[in-house]
Amino acid sequence: MATYKLKGDFAVITGSVTDTSATASINISKEISYPSGFTKNNCVVISIGAKFNAKTNYTYGTLADSELSDAYLNGGFGKSAILQDSNILLRLYFDFGSGAASTMTLDYKIILMKV
Asked: Are 112 and 91 a contacting pair, CB within 8 Å?
């Protein structure tokens, strides 16, 4: 379930998603409702953040060494928030490389701005 904080022309959407595939890669797609007053036609995505729910900082771009255990330092990270007609499509991808397999819960943060 997403949480929405609205302030003027900005909206911060936060929530969690769990990947239960227990593979070396996490590939999550989640549809999120628009906050009240926001639509595909009147806003843009300012920022997307994601983190493992046990960590304390959101990461923007690549994952930093301080945010991951040594087992995950060589992995890749990708994210996007696509503004669709009826909702926002959040896509998160992590590749931990060979040998890493587990179920992971990720926290996300999306910041929208009206234009």
From this structure: no
